[in-house]
Amino acid sequence: MAYRVYAMDTCFFTPHGNYDFDVRCEMLRELGYEGTYLTLWSEQAWADLERVPQVRQRHGLEVAAVYVTIDPWAPADHPERQRIRRLVETLEGCNAIEIATIRNRDGIGSSDPRGDDAAAAYLESLLEVAGKRGIQLFLYPHINAWLERVEDAVRLCERLQHPNLGAMFCAFHWFAADGQDLFARLDAARPWLRQVNLCGSRKSPNGVAGKATIEPLDEGELDNFALIGHLQRIGYQGWIGFQGYSIAGDVYAKLKRSLTAFRDIESRLARHPHWAKIR
User: Fold this and answer.
1) How crowded is residue 238: how many other Cβ atoms within 10 Å of its Cβ?
2) Which is nearest to 13 in space by CA: 35, 33, 39, 36?
3) Per-residue pLDDT for the chain (279 aa), expressed as one digit of tens each?
4) pTM above 0.85, yes or no
């Protein structure tokens, strides 16, 4: 099958400066991507939300998702918590919000189930609005965050059982956290899996968080052929995104390489699906 593909905006932030929102869209459209993505990690990114409703008409792209980081332990009246609630209440031009968490609080470390109650209560407050507006919330595992692994996202999805809540699989963050039990973790996430992002990666103390690199899809040790083959076997049909944090360089050229590599993988899998059944 041919997946719809987007590039995360993290590709477009370089040591020399950041590409304008519309320029990002123009590049992606010319390269043949179907979607773009907005990471809300700066005031400029929050300002760019105003452009999201016009992306389809101006550029012929979908906005696959916007990304935020929450603090599950923040009080209900905390300004950032109120801002994120307003995002769910007002977002237009996109129906998916990916949610990562802060690192930890009060001795509750990564993947610690003692954080579940606070996270569940926070998510329930957002889901009350998301359900009315048709907004999907996808839990985004992130290295060194409290919600670090896809199994943490699955645990919360199983607890809350809400149709507007789903899980992300982030290949880099799985690989950087431990890189173990790939197929079993995807199998467990299958009922809740709503989006996936990929990259090339290799273990390195010089990589992100001192764990691993983020590279174009045709580089590194991470076996994206086997990963995509398993996504097909479990029936995943959602978006595929390309992670880009820290890649930098000639953004257009590297995004072209990743898309070419991805479509080549799809073509090989169509001809030889059994090739991806590794043990």
Assistant:
1) 18
2) 39
3) 699 999 999 999 999 999 999 999 999 999 999 999 999 999 999 999 999 999 999 999 999 999 999 999 999 999 999 999 999 999 999 999 999 999 888 889 999 999 999 999 999 999 999 999 999 999 999 999 999 999 999 999 999 999 999 999 999 999 999 999 999 999 999 999 999 999 999 999 999 999 999 999 999 999 999 999 999 999 999 999 999 999 989 999 999 999 999 999 999 999 999 999 998
4) yes
Instruction: Report which of 71, 72, 63 is spatially closest to residue 45, judged by C-alpha positions.
Output: 63
User: What is the β-pairing status of strands 203-208 and 212-212?
Assistant: antiparallel
**Helix (H), strand (E), coil (C) string for 27-61:** HHHHHCCCEEEEECCCHHHHHHHHHHHHHHHHHCC
| Cβ(191)–Cβ(235) below 8 Å | no
d(CA 217, CA 209): 20
Q: Which CATH architecture is the domain 5-276 placed in? A: Alpha-Beta Barrel (3.20)
Query: Counting runs of H as helices and runs of E as strands, what totals does the chain give?
Result: 10, 12
Backbone angles phi, psi at 29, to 5 degrees: -65, -45
Q: CB–CB of 141/148 below 8 Å?
A: yes
* Domain ranges across the chain: 5-276
- Taking Cα atoms as reference points, which of 168, 193, 195, 182 lies closest to residue 225? 182
